[in-house]
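Q: I'm writing up a methods section and want to include an example of the input and output format. Could you take the sequence below and give the corresponding predicted structure tokens, formatted cleanly so I can copy it straight into the document?
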Amino acid sequence: MKTTLLLLLFSLPALAQIPPTARRDIDAGNQAWVDAMKTGNIAAVVASYAGDALDCGPTGDCIRGRAAYEQKMKDRIATLGHARSASVHTAGSTQQGDFVYEWGSARAEFANGKNIEGRYLTAWQRQPDGHWRIFRNLSIPPDNKSR
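A: Here is the clean output for your methods example:
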């Protein structure tokens, strides 16, 4: 029984491994968001989304498709300007079939004193061309401080 439990415990990290191609595309997509926030060049981050992707904000408002996401990014940059700094931190990821579920936090700080920050849960889907693109992106609302 102890041996079985130990084998199970030591095999769990292997279950969390995702394919190297997925890790590359996810890291590139996250870096593209950072770069877009800092430079205003949104082409790479828009390309990290699947054509039929759904992107939902922390209040539950959602947009569908690359064109809608591109407009969202243009509007954000027009309103806030370029970020002084930006970062994405992946807290974890796991694969199930053609999907990798990734969660973490993102932050961007702007010269006008405004910040964008929060947690996210993203489903990346393997595409027919072998690349992984964002299928669903969900911004998680902040914790309820009154609990």
